[in-house]
Amino acid sequence: HAKAESEVTSLAPESPNREAYYVQSPSRESNSFRSTPIHTPLGSPARASSSSSFKIGSQKSNRRHDGTEFDAIEEETLLEDDDDDTEGRRTRRSCRCYSLAFAVGFLALFSFFALVLFAVSRNQKPIVSMKSIVFDSFVIQAGTDATGVSTDMVTMNSTVKFHFLNKGSFFGVGVTSTPLDLSYSALTLAVGSVDEFYQGRKSGKIVTVAVTGREIPLYGGGADLRSQNGAPVPLTISFTLRSRGYVLGRLVKPKFYNRILCSVIMDPALMNLPLPLGPNCSYN
């Protein structure tokens, strides 16, 4: 029994009571810290402390890792958006460049085509051929002009015919004319008006113009006409035809001018008969 007491006595100092220590952990509900007593196991207090520290550190590491991964994903998303915007701008710029190049090319090709048509059409100038003139009447009599001055007056009627030919193989022309003058020396005795008309491609027509003069004052020229005593009187016909071709709609419109000058003899013995004009006409 004494031996047992001595054994108990000897074992007592080897296992003294362990003191408790406290670890402060942050509270989720407030900023204050809560003291929690934790009793270390008998075996290894350092290991428990190390395990607790590792858990806290790993949580912080996980949070840090999650934050870094989120930042990386966000950065990649922004980079992809930037790439998409850049690609979109490049696509729009390319489309604009292609559209501009197409427009410039189309205008250049159209202009070249129009110039070719214009050059070809210039070699297809209309042809005018004077045919004949018929003097229906020619009368000289005394009279007074609009101001009351006494002078000789001439009244005459005549008809002029000419042929108009449009040589254009792929375009028609619109034709206008200056007044057709029938004059003696520098004095106009009669005037005719050519109606505006349109002539189709590779076609022609005979144009008839009434040339008349009514009570035209002769002043000094009347004496020369009276002195002819029924003899032939030399007269002159002059006018200009203006033709405008419509090659490409109204975009290409070449213009042509035909100035006609003819000499004719008015013979009282040949009244109401057609007198040929062709051999005595010039065309400029």
TrEMBL record:
GO biological process, one term: defense response to other organism
Feature: compositional bias, Low complexity: 43-60
Region Disordered, residue ranges: 1-90
Composition-biased stretches (Polar residues): 24-38
Transmembrane segment boundaries: 97-120
Keyword annotations of the record: Membrane, Transmembrane, Transmembrane helix
Main location per the UniProt record: membrane
Recorded superkingdom: Eukaryota
InterPro entries: NDR1-like
Subcellular location: Membrane
GO cellular component, one term: plasma membrane
Biased composition (Acidic residues): 69-86
Signal peptide residue numbers: none
PANTHER family reported for this sequence: LATE EMBRYOGENESIS ABUNDANT (LEA) HYDROXYPROLINE-RICH GLYCOPROTEIN FAMILY, OS05G0199100 PROTEIN
Protein name per the record: Uncharacterized protein
Organism: Genlisea aurea
